[in-house]
Specification:
single chain, alpha+beta, eight-stranded antiparallel β-sheet, 3 helices, about 30% helix
Length: about 170
């Protein structure tokens, strides 16, 4: 009887450690000096937005507000709500969240698309409104960015001016 009790205790302890490391990456993550804060507002300076990890131009907007859904996923929405920048930092997410968001992103990337001025544009509809998206990958930092705007020209402008900052 004593062996069975010890065996179950060991199994329970292993399950607790697995859960802690698989679903709480904060335990293993490094501190992020450029962490986004929910509700934080970004405004243009000299025609460009500085989102700390990257910069880009968005001439048809006045500001962006950060919406933090979960660790590793930030969404920046302009004041009118029709320009969005989704930032996926895969190393900062739990395994379950990473799988779910990656699945949603892949579904979006598999939509019909065309090329405009060298940028692959994805056609999408949200609540009967037409949007044009584009995807930018930065594998060196395991970051992906998905931009959606109401016009092709705005999407192209944002993608072509997007620059990742050195760490």
């Amino acid at each position: 009887m004593r062996f069975i009790f010890k065996f179950f205790i060991v199994i329970i302890i292993l399950a607790i450690f697995h859960t802690a490391f698989a679903y709480h990456p904060v335990i293993l993550a490094s501190f992020d000096d450029a962490k986004y804060v929910d509700g934080e507002m970004f405004t243009q300076v000299n025609g460009s937005y500085d989102f700390r990890k990257f910069t880009l131009n968005s001439s048809q907007t006045e500001n962006y507000t950060a919406i933090i859904d979960t660790s590793g996923f930030a969404q920046f929405v302009d004041g009118k709500g029709n320009h969005t920048i989704n930032v996926f930092e895969w190393d900062k997410m739990t395994s379950g969240r990473k799988d779910r968001l990656n699945s949603l992103l892949m579904t979006e990337l598999n939509r019909s698309h065309f090329t405009a001025d060298g940028v692959e544009i994805i056609n999408t509809n949200v609540l009967s409104a037409k949007f044009y998206g584009a995807h930018v990958n930065f594998p060196e930092r395991n970051i992906e960015i998905y931009i959606a705007t109401p016009t092709v020209n705005e999407t192209v402008e944002m993608v072509k001016t997007l620059k990742f900052k050195e760490s």
